[in-house]
Amino acid sequence: MRTVRSECTDRLLILNERHLGRVLVRYVRHYDGHRPHRALKLRPPDPLTARIPSTRAALASIRRREILGALINEYHAA
Questions:
Q1: Share of the chain above pLDDT 70, in %
Q2: Separation CA 59–CA 76 (nearest Å)
Q3: Considering just the CA atoms, what is the radius of gyration of the chain in Å?
Q4: Residue 34 has what pLDDT?
Q5: Does the global pTM surpass 0.85?
Q6: Residue 37 dihedral angles phi and psi, to the nearest 5°
Q7: Structural domain spans, the chain
């Protein structure tokens, strides 16, 4: 609860219950699939997002995806 509150809901103006539901769904999707976890040696739980590009060209083409209106950003090799 503390993480979702400090990283998400404390930084947004929640309009109603429906809006809160949408925000929480998006945040949980990010948290479970992309956010690094200490227990996993700072790797995300989803093994597909844990891949680290090995070439300099792959590192040069990093794409950013905004989550929750750029409150959270996810980065992927293009």
A1: 78
A2: 9
A3: 14
A4: 79
A5: no
A6: -120, 135
A7: 2-77
